[in-house]
């Protein structure tokens, strides 16, 4: 019943979107949410919260803002099936909502109302988001009077003031984070890649790719400015950090997390993997699970720079626990954050821009991969903000009870 309107609008023989299964309300402490960036006739962000076994949905033309002063119009739309949260791909021409759709953010949400069903019905929903991009408290409020909307209800999506709100940030959260939370692709890349459809868990759906597409490489190094055809460098010298008094500002800088772990270089050559330390010690034997993940990457040759860490439940790295894990040979749960791609498929990328190298790296190691091999994302520009935010986060975490 809840999906009647959703299904009425679509012909599932002509669109890759899921028809959906009707399920009852889930008695789950974790309700899912997803925000899809949808380049339909007009670009908008589809904001969806799981409730009653479906995704309650709103179309937000300008997207969310972390600025509490920015109240974003959210036009209420039909319920979508839960599986829709895993949909990323292209809705073909002449279908409802034709255009590319990206999983811009996803995660879980927690209702802050004692009875979220009643709150939704009343048109005033307060909740917490735990996504990859959005965090903290939010509200969805239905408008009344002359703003109520005619055939569709008009609501407002508002960031509440808390540690995750960024007053004055305007469009920054969407402007600075244009990539898919599932695959690291931009909306343009998804549109260009129109036959690749992703399933609920980020896996490629088996029925879609043709023979030719299966053999299409994930990375096209020849298209990267500064890439040079060469043999794999014997002494690649990855980029090292240096200390600065001030965080640099401006769009020429990209900002990353400095992990507290071991820097390792992964060398992949025809299924053969070597993991070496900064002092060129071969540590491959210490990390069999990780070596296996590198061997599974869809490349013949690659040099991937990164940091091996022990990740605590709060998402921070712990160097002592890392040393312990290695000493006890219990390394299967360690996480490798890939930070740079120096060489791939016969091309030396060391003279290419870091941003281009990371884009190629993200294609190999998707941004949202949550296994033992992960892509380390970055923030372009706004260094001082990034720095202040990191300091605030630290203070917040270590604040005495
Ligand atoms: Mn839409």
Give the arrangement of secondary structure elements.
Layout: H1 4-8, E1 31-39, E2 43-51, E3 54-60, E4 72-81, E5 89-91, E6 99-111, H2 116-122, E7 124-131, E8 135-142, E9 154-159, H3 172-175, H4 187-192, H5 211-214, E10 228-229, E11 254-255, E12 262-269, E13 272-277, H6 288-296, E14 301-309, H7 319-327, E15 335-344, E16 347-348, H8 354-364, E17 373-375, E18 379-380, H9 383-398
Parallel strand pairs: 15-17
Antiparallel strand pairs: 1-2, 1-6, 2-3, 3-4, 4-9, 5-6, 6-7, 7-8, 8-9, 10-16, 11-18, 12-13, 12-14, 14-15, 15-16
Manganese (II) ion (MN) binds at residues 38, 40, 44, 46, 59, 97.
Structure description:
There is one protein chain. The protein is α+β, with helices and mostly antiparallel strands and 401 residues long. The protein folds into two domains: 172 residues, no CATH class; 158 residues, DNA ligase/mRNA capping enzyme (D-amino Acid Aminotransferase, Chain A, domain 1, 2-Layer Sandwich). The protein has nine helices and 18 strands. An eight-stranded antiparallel beta barrel has the order 1-2-3-4-9-8-7-6. Strands 10, 12, 13, 14, 15, 16 and 17 form a seven-stranded mixed β-sheet that branches. The N and C termini lie far apart (48 Å). Bound molecules: manganese (II) ion (MN). The site of manganese (II) ion has 6 residues, from strand 2.
């Amino acid at each position: 019943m809840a999906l009647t309107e959703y299904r009425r609008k679509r012909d599932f023989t002509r669109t890759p979107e899921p028809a959906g299964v009707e399920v009852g309300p889930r008695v789950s402490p974790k309700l899912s949410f997803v925000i899809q960036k949808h380049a339909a006739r007009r670009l908008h962000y589809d904001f969806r919260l799981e409730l009653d076994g479906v995704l309650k949905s709103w179309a937000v033309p300008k997207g969310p803002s972390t600025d509490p002063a920015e109240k974003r119009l959210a036009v209420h739309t039909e319920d979508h099936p839960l599986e829709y949260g895993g949909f990323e791909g292209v809705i073909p021409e002449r279908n409802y909502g034709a255009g590319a759709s990206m999983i811009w953010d996803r995660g879980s949400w927690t209702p802050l109302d004692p009875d979220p069903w009643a709150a939704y019905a009343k048109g005033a929903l307060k909740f917490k988001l735990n996504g990859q991009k959005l965090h903290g408290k939010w509200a969805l409020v239905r408008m009344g009077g002359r703003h109520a909307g005619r055939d569709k209800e008009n609501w407002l999506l508002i960031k509440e003031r808390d540690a995750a709100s960024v007053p004055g940030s305007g469009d920054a959260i969407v402007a600075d984070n244009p990539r898919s939370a599932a695959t690291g692709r931009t909306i343009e890349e998804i549109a260009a890649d129109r036959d690749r459809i992703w399933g609920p868990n980020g896996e490629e759906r088996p029925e879609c790719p043709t023979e030719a597409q299966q053999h299409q490489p994930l990375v096209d190094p020849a298209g990267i400015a500064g890439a040079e055809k060469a043999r794999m460098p014997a002494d690649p010298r990855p980029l090292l950090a240096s200390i600065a008094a001030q965080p640099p500002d401006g769009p020429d800088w990209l900002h990353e997390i400095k992990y507290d772990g071991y820097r390792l270089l992964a060398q992949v050559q025809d299924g053969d993997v070597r993991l070496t330390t900064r002092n060129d010690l071969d540590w491959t034997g210490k990390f069999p699970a990780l070596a296996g993940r590198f061997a599974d990457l869809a490349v013949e040759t690659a040099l991937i720079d990164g940091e091996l860490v022990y990740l605590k439940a709060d998402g921070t790295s712990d160097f002592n626990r890392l040393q312990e894990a290695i000493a006890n040979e219990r390394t299967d749960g360690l996480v490798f954050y890939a930070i740079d791609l120096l060489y791939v498929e016969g091309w030396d990328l060391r003279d290419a821009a870091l941003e281009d190298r990371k884009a190629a790296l993200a294609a190999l190691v998707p941004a949202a991969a949550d296994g033992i091999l992960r892509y380390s994302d970055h923030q372009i520009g706004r260094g001082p903000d990034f720095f202040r935010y990191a300091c605030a986060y630290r203070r917040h975490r270590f604040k005495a009870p």
